[in-house]
Amino acid sequence: MMEKLIRFNLNGKDTEISIDPTLTLLWVLRDQFGLSGTKYGCGIGVCGACTILLDNRAIRSCTYQISDVMDRKVVTIEGLASKGKLHPVQKAFMDKDALQCGYCTPGMIMNATSLLIENPEPSRQEVIDAMQDNLCRCGAHIRIIEAIQQAGQEMKKGTVSHEVKTG
Amino acid sequence: MKKRNSNPKLATTKSRLDLKRRDFFTLLGGGIAVYLSSKNPSELLALPLIQRREVPEDFNAFITIYEDGTVICHVGKIEMGQGPITSLPQQVADELDVSIESIKMLMGDTGICSYDAGTWGSLTTREYSHYLRAACAEARAVLIELATEHLQILPSNAKVKDGIVYDVTNPEKKVSYGWLTRGNRINRSMDEKPKVKDHTEFHYVGQSLLRADARQKVNGEAIYAADVPMPGRVYAKVLRPPSHHVKLKSVDYSEAGKMTGVEVVRDGDLIAVLHELPDVAERALGTIKATYTADEMEVDHHTIFDHLLNATGNMRGREAEGDLGEGERQADIIFDSEFYDGYKAHAPIEPHTAMAKWEGEKVVVWASVQSPFGAQDQIAQELGIPLEDVRIITPFVGGGFGGKIYHPQVMEVVKIAKLAKKPVLLAYTREEEFFMDFFRSAAVIRIRSGITENGLITLWDYKHYFFEARGSDTIYKVPNKLTTSYSAKRGSPVQPLPTGAWRAPGANSNTFARESQIDIMAAKAGIDPIEFRLKNLADEKMIAVINALVDKFGYTPAKGPSGRGIGMACGTDAGTWVAVMIEVNVDTNTGKVQAIRAVVSQDMGMCVNPQGTALQAESCVTMGMGYALAEDIEFKGGDVISSNFDNYQLPLFSWVPETIDTVILDRQDQPPQGGGEPAIICMGGALANAIYDACGARVFQMPMTPERILKEITSS
């Protein structure tokens, strides 16, 4: 496959890579950029372990090609904290013990962040609807729901921007 | 204090682990961490191997104390989400008298850690902790002895706080553990082993602590087996047969071999394609043409229960008491029931993964396993190489549930990497994960039981077919009873698919059957199901657990079906007495079940971390809803049809009850028991009984899908 130069913004930094444009976004992020926080879970966009933000909206990186991010903004779990300060969603997951094995956690957090960008004050039912297609085998769901609602409250206080700053 | 270079005369020799402090700290971040939070695995390769096949008695095998007071706790347990990374340091800190912040955990590395057979069976606290606590208690006693000699103070005046031994009559006279040990092995032991602390002396044990690994897991730094960076590493994709019962007849991988950068390796029927890019390796795998023998087996997920009932095997009676004929005669009502349960997948979100790197005759494997030492044994035996040439390093494990007791990926990747002569990563795809799983057994249970008109059980004739016996004990006081286990004869397996331990193996199916039967009898007798249980129980601990459950739930007695949708089940597992009560709504038009609230009550002896216990109880309720209501492996012969999460249904956010409360009976003066598995055993029975209570439909088969519930609603 012919290589192509792909330019995009990754975790706040403009970047480019010359690569087979049909390669799966998930694997390029992990293998070429060393961002191993984004996980493989199912490969068909069903489990949500590979969720990242593309232009501030949650997408499943296992169903995208690297060419799909051309001139767009990508944020992975590694890009969520700002200057070592955790994002309110990350902090709420810690405070609520909303994780066990931790493998689905980055995808959960990215999906929740996307929800809170769109809807800063989701009801319990809105959180459930938004998270429905992210799978957790350990059964941390009930705490994840609480954590997302807490993060929404924190963000509402206005101390943190809802948008994920990129660049 | 004496000059720093005046070594205490009784000090120490070079640590058996021969680990320089620097080695640890390049590997460890702040706080408690498994050491692969660092991204520099090559430094680890310089470290020496030790191996033991029994949990060692020498306390040095568990801990090393460095000059700055850091206590490295190196244990063979692994962290797959159930929290030993938090609960083990609580115990170490209390037994050693050090602050919990000074402890760093190194887990699951056969080169560094004290031997452990595997992380399973809810054994970490109820078994392994005894060894660890005893080791720490002895280390503390030895360190105090060294300190009193060094300080020249009376042993009776020596006290310890936060790893510093001081003279109570003159607190200025003090010396730290770290100064005494300096990261070295302590060459002294106590002839008379000191007692571990009494529960009244604990500071950390019994406290609710948040997960120690949470920060790494929320910021993406936590390393799992696929995340270990390794220059020159390639991905392997393995050719899989269409069925477990077929053999490879012919294979043509010439096309794959022609692809740029693709390498094909073969060891017998193990055929793998390698490429640095997983996309390319996957494409190459798709070009391989292979033919197989036919799968003759006809049995599938519909006919499996007849298959089990008709199979021949060994029969063994247990728990025999009284006389079944007498039980029949005493009974006013007899009940015959048959219960069924299909195959379940472990389905951890992290599939089985391993990376192998050979250096000469030695191999290092970073693996997602529940049994690193078991994997080490297997490789050494199968390849005929010495144990010390094999090292397994277990980073964070992304869920196990029993499924990573079996680690076929480890042997495969070791063989592939040997042929490839380069580091190889084998990360199963989800489809491989389903195919290669050792499923929870399909199960059939037959119960013939009888009660008097007053609701006393007189007869209990329990037969379970070709799955684990765990959880098949009666628990109720019955004068005439027999439990019969049918099991496969050696060499002639009855289950058509590979089966293995799945979170509380056997106990989920057995408890579903027993607790459903209890409710069936209670309803017929016209007695509230809780009252019926209490009437037929003699076990004081079980009674106390049920009373605590009823209190917390605010349950009021009623005959079933009450229309309220409340169900409960109880049992014992991993040494713990457990009961779960759940309230549900059943949509009688669709058969859909919605959980509303749940309470878990358990007597687990001493509880190390109530918060961690609550997490496990919630996990059991949530995961248990999956097996009870939806999860079912579809298959035909040896072909596993369920292949991904779009055709195997895990529990979803919308299923979760609004609240899950956990009651832990205060038994801090008792030995600790299991916490990871017990509550899940109740979920099938509690939900079956709640569904019945809601709408009068009794479902005898798990998963209790909307279709099965609707069918019972229509027929009832």
Features:
heterodimer, A: 167 residues, alpha+beta, Ubiquitin-like (UB roll), DNA polymerase, domain 1, five-stranded mixed beta sheet, 5 helices, 32% helix, globular, B: 716 residues, Aldehyde Oxidoreductase, domain 4, seven-stranded mixed beta sheet, six-stranded mixed beta sheet
Domain module tally of chain A: 2
Task: Tell me the β content of chain B.
Answer: 15-25%
The largest β sheet of chain A comes out as: 5 strands, mixed
Net shape of chain B: globular
Task: State the major sheet of chain B.
Answer: 7 strands, mixed
Q: Averaged pLDDT of chain B, please?
A: 92
Instruction: From the alpha carbons, calculate the radius of gyration of chain B and give it in angstroms.
Output: 28 Å
Proportion of residues in β-strands of chain A:
5-15%
CATH fold label of the largest domain in chain A? Ubiquitin-like (UB roll)
Rg from Cα of chain A: 15 Å
Classified by CATH, the class of the largest domain in chain A is Alpha Beta
Task: Describe this structure as you would to a colleague.
The complex is a heterodimer of chains A (167) and B (716). Chain A has 167 residues and is an alpha+beta fold. Helix content of chain A is 32%, strand content 15%. In chain A, strands 2-1-5-3-4 form a five-stranded mixed β-sheet, with helices on one face. The N and C termini of chain A lie far apart (31 Å). In chain A, 56% of the residues are buried. Chain B is α+β, with helices and mostly antiparallel strands. Chain B has three domains: 12-218, Aldehyde oxidase/xanthine dehydrogenase, molybdopterin binding domain (Aldehyde Oxidoreductase, domain 4, 2-Layer Sandwich); 229-293 and 352-427, Aldehyde oxidase/xanthine dehydrogenase, molybdopterin binding domain (Aldehyde Oxidoreductase, domain 4, 2-Layer Sandwich); 304-343 and 439-715, 2-Layer Sandwich (Aldehyde Oxidoreductase, domain 4), CATH 3.30.365.10. Chain B is 29% helix and 23% strand. In chain B, a hairpin with a 2-residue loop joins strand 5 and strand 6 (164-167). In chain B, helix 3 (84-96) packs parallel to helix 4, helix 14 (507-525) packs parallel to helix 18 and helix 17 packs across helix 18. At the A-B interface, helix 1, helix 2, helix 3, helix 4 and helix 5 of A face helix 6 and helix 17 of B.
